[in-house]
Design goal:
It is built from no helices and 27 strands. It is mainly β. The protein is elongated, with a radius of gyration of 29 Å.
Amino acid sequence: KVRLTNIKLGKQKFVIEKRAFATTTKTITVGWGSNPLGNFELTPTGTQYDFVVVDFASGKPLAKAEFSSGDATALADDKGHAKLTVEKPGDDSLDVGIKLDGFRSDTIVVQTDAKDVQQVKLVSARRQLFISKRAGKCDLYSTYADGKSEKLLLAGSGHEREADLELVPHPTDAPVAYVSTRGNQSNSDGYLLSNLILIDSESGETTNVIASERINIIGWSGSRLVYVLVTQGQSARSADRYRVMSYDYKSGDNKQLANANYFNDVTLFGGQLYYAPNGGLESSPVKLYRVNVDGSNSQAIFDQEVWAMVRVSYEELALSVQQQWF
């Protein structure tokens, strides 16, 4: 789409030029206000190459992917189809670059005499993380979804206890929450503590959030990570033994949302946190509570002790209360 402004009124010569295409010339009359000129089709004079670009994971077509080779460019349509016209292809092959926001840029080699439509699969720019013991320790790696460009993100310390490992990436941003005993820290009884670390999946930069006897990640909500920890040094009968915490990776704010001797269940649902304390050591009847992940708007929403919560649809939770379901 092209918009021309500050054109003199009256008859004008309108010219469209693009390398590898025949020049189009037309006489137009420019009047006051808008002067829509409609659509123009350029006749290719160079060699054309056809491509279909799809998502590597889903196989669905990707619109607006840009193909380029030298000065020649083309954009994929809604069906992922692009036709690249090259003025003077090389003797044997040419390099074609493909890029699209949110995907890894790639380059393919195309034979100059290629006639068939070529399929191109673009891979998400978001790197995938995994833990491997192939080198003898629990090392953290990152790679693209097609297995290319693998790199060591965080070397294992050798103190990781496999049962305590948790790895939860942010759904859209770079931070990854990682729980392990890699710090080799112990409490006064010699119990190995778990460390909660945030890792930038791109740079590998780490942020130590907290260490405790046990840490369980509930999930991400916006910039906040919600997790449950067992407080080190607290008696098993303490009302503050378990704490639900909310950490904002952007501000570094780490706040407590709830505490109890034990939680029957904790879940994120609809951008809010639902938690069900255990009534075993409580002096008054326990309830089901809901709170925003920043700690605001805390309220009791169900006046019975909930044993478990199961998400049964996008907008529904099922609550288990002894032998009943709500």
